[in-house]
User: Fold this.
Amino acid sequence: MANSCHVYLLRDGQHQVLNIPDEFALSTTEVLLRKEGNRLIIEPISSGSLLSLLASLEDITENFPDVDEGLLPLDDIVL
Assistant:
């Protein structure tokens, strides 16, 4: 494999530790680890902003009910 290198797994208590070489370093601190057969797959978790997530959603086309219908205007409420 062209994009591969030989590394060692270390033991840290009950965990195995993988040291990732600089050429494979990820630009995030959170990853998704999954196992497919004998392979471990490490995928970075995007730390995108809420604004970018909202921009990717489809527009809402349904009409929302008027929740203020039948209520007095705020200026008319006397306590």
